[in-house]
Every structure is written in structure tokens, then in C-alpha cells.
Amino acid sequence: MDPVQHDSSIWDLPPRDSIIDPVFCDLIRVLDFVVMEPKDESQFRILGKIPDWLSHMNEKRLYPGSSIILEELSPFVEGFIPTAESLWAEKKNGTLKSGPWTETDSSGNERDLELCAVSLNGRKILLLQLLGEAYQEKRNILQSCREQGLDYEILFKTQQALNKAHDMLKKQAEQLKELALVDELTGLNNRRGFMTLAEQQIKIADRNKSDLTLVYFDLDNFKTINDTLGHAEGDRVLVLAANLLRDTFRQSDILGRMGGDEFVALITDHRDPDENSLRERLEENLKRFNSQSELNYELATSIGITVRRPESPCSLSELLEQSDMAMFEDKTRKKLKRR
């Protein structure tokens, strides 16, 4: 395949003493590139770390900084060098690709490769890339088209249109998920849903000059459960915590999962018990749950409760912040008590 000249503007970087530093080379390696520069007429020096697949292409053990004879790596690579030299001789920033070819490594595996000569601020650089699955899939489709007499360009454009439609549907699904008001895992209001309903309730409370009580709590040691027992068990605990909230509060109260292991309950009936009674009710239900649970551990929570009164109104954000702070103080007290 004929070499392809590419736009040189992407390489118009300011001169530096050492533009190819180790971090840059490691970044290139992640993209399945080998970075090399000439050492003499027949050898190139490898910059950065060695990708695993290159070790199977050469019998010699390679290290960063190793010299490699291109003829031993591949006759195709050696044959590309005169073409690369024509680019380097121009002494202008730019790139020149060899086009893909297939090479069999020492394990008998076929590797799809491509070379790219780079002229960068006077430096001669050679990139060797292992082409990925996308190229292999494209090659297989092209071969199938040839065998069946199909027009590859039409098929390729159709596939592009299908991919674009798929991406659009995926994006729309993500947008709908963001607009949803219910937490998928627990069935409670998600943060957006809770904030929407709670804001409405604050307006009603201001109009009726009534109290609102916010209960904010999270699960103690949830990260430990997640890390030691797995995310599936963590999800199970979150569902159990949501059910505990449903059993503790009225249907008219607004319940929500704010994210992670943090939950809230906005008490809408000002005739509800006081702060201490609410705390006792929640702790009693938690104690009853632990006594009947088949879990190998007990659930524990930290609780923060704040009452919003008509004579000292505050915004929903301020109310959440106050309750969150009270919950943190509760968590701190319990940690100090255990010492």
C-alpha cells in the first residue's frame, strides 16, 4: 500500500530539548505504539517501555533503550525506511504512514501492523502500531464483501449510519435517566426527585406557617461492606436500608436516596413526634431489623435531624447542610465512644 502523507499541522509543537520524554512514550505505548528513533544506519533505539506484543516479534530480549535491527524485526519495516528518509530529509514537521500489513510472530499469531514516520522539530521518529480489533473486523467485512460480490462502501456507510443511530439512542437513554425522579436500585426518590418534591413542600410550609423536620442518615461502615463482601452485597444493604425507611416513616413523608449510602426523610406532618422521638423510632426499628436479619453483620446508621420552623425559615440547601452536619457529629460521637 502506498504511503499516505498527513497534515503536518498537528505536529507544529514548540521546540524542546527532549520532546520525547518517558511519560509521552508510555502514553504512546498504551495506544499500542512502539516509539523508535535512529541510532545509526541499520539500528533504531526504542524509547519508553516495551509492549508485550513486541516481545513476540523479536527473539532478542528487549528493554527500554534497547537497539533493534529493523531487518530482524521485519523486512517490511526495513523496506519502509528509504520512504521515511524522504520525509525526514525535508526537515518539516509531518507524518507518513506505511499502510497496514500482516506479520506472523514467534508464537504463530498473525499481527496487523502499521508504521508511521514522524518528523518532529528536527527529530526522526518511527512509530510501530499494533492495529486493534476494529481493523481486523473491517478487514473481515471487506473480505466477505469481495466473496459475495457486495459493495463495501455502501455496506460501510450503512454500518456507520447504524452506529450513529445506536450512539444517539444511547445518549437519549442517558438523558432520560438523568431526568428520572426515582432511584433505580431502591425505588425511593433520587436526589432530583427529592429536591423537586421537598421544594414544593417548603412552599406549602411557608404558606401554612408550619414546621418541617428533615432526617438525614447514612450507613456506618458501608465502604467496608462494599470492599470486603462486594458491590452486590452493598446494593442489597442499600435496598434493606430503603425498606427500613419505609417502615419507619409515613407514606406522606418524602423519602429519598441522595447518593451512595446517604438517605433523607422530610417529615411533612408538623404533628409528628419531636426530634428525640423520631431518633428513637428509627433506632428501635433498626434494632428490630438486626435481631430478625439473616445477615452476618449488623446494620448501623448515623443520624442527623433538623427542624425548620416558620420563625426561622431557611432554604432546602441550608436545611440539608444543617442535617448533614448533625449526622456527621453523631458519627463522630459514636467513634469517640468506641475508643
Residues in helix, % = 40-55%
The domain tally reads 3
Q: Per the principal axes of the C-alpha atoms, what is the gross shape?
A: elongated
| Average pLDDT, all residues | 81
Stretches where pLDDT falls below 50 for ≥5 residues? 4-20
In percent terms, what proportion of residues is strand?
15-25%
What is the N-to-C succession of helices and strands?
Answer: EHEEHEHHEEEEHHHEHHEEHEH
Instruction: Tell me the number of helical segments per DSSP (H or I, 4 or more residues long).
Output: 11
At the first level of CATH, what is the class of the largest domain? Alpha Beta
Could you give a short account of the major beta sheet? 8 strands, antiparallel
Number of E strands: 12
Distance between the termini: 73 Å
Q: C-alpha Rg, in Å?
A: 32 Å
Oligomer: single chain
From the helix content, strand content and strand pairing, which structural class follows?
Answer: alpha+beta
Annotation keywords:
Beta-Lactamase; alpha+beta; Alpha-Beta Plaits; eight-stranded antiparallel sheet; 339 residues
Could you characterize what this model shows?
- This protein is α+β, with helices and mostly antiparallel strands.
- It folds into 3 domains: 4-131, 2-Layer Sandwich (Beta-Lactamase), CATH 3.30.450; 136-179; 191-338, 2-Layer Sandwich (Alpha-Beta Plaits), CATH 3.30.70.270.
- The protein contains 11 helices and 12 strands.
- Residues 4-20 have low confidence and may be disordered.
Summarize the structure.
The chain folds into three domains: 4-131, Beta-Lactamase (2-Layer Sandwich); 136-179; 191-338, 2-Layer Sandwich (Alpha-Beta Plaits), CATH 3.30.70.
